[in-house]
Design a protein that fits this description.
This protein has 168 residues and is an alpha/beta fold. The chain is 20% helix and 32% strand. Keywords: Metal-binding.
């Protein structure tokens, strides 16, 4: 099972659309995960049409229309892997311990908000993943997104993808 993970797209405020290379990955993925801060419902509509399966939550910049269609925390079990998706997890200091306590029955937590890619594992085994942002890198060197595979109940081949700089 092939996963594509994105967050903090901020469309159309930070970009008109997702990069073509990311759309290509979305269209071949089994599951697309979006960890909030869509900003406009148009991207949600397009992802629902183009993704085989979408698991998503809303973020702090998402208004009533997005909040009416998306949960604050999304949960799914994918081939035995228990997944949760949330936008905010608080400050980086103590994140693993805090999230492990908040999500004791979760194997993988995908989150966003900071626009900073993150891949760590809590002492409990909870894997924490933040794909960064494909459209708003803030102070990061690159626009990013993540992919991973799930096979026989295990997450593997987690990859951070760096996008080429956007042209005007």
């Amino acid at each position: 099972m092939r996963l594509v993970m994105i967050s903090d797209t901020h469309i159309p405020k930070r970009a008109r659309d997702l990069p073509a290379t990311l759309w290509a990955a979305i269209e071949t993925a089994d599951v697309v995960i979006h960890a909030g801060d869509w900003v406009d419902i148009g991207l949600l509509n397009r992802l629902e049409t183009r993704a085989a399966r979408l698991i998503a939550c809303y973020g702090n910049n998402d208004g009533p229309a997005l909040r009416a269609r998306l949960p604050e925390i999304a949960h799914a079990t994918l081939d035995g892997v228990r997944l949760a998706v949330i936008h905010e997890t608080g400050q980086a200091t103590g994140r693993e311990k805090r999230c492990a306590a908040m999500f004791p029955d979760t194997d993988v937590l995908v989150f966003g908000h900071s626009h900073i890619p993150w891949d760590t594992t809590a002492p409990t085994g909870l894997r924490l993943l933040n794909p960064g942002s494909p459209t708003d890198r803030r102070r990061q060197p690159d626009h990013t997104w993540m992919s991973a595979d799930i096979t026989a109940g295990a997450l593997h081949d987690v990859t951070l993808h760096r996008l080429p700089p956007r042209t005007a």
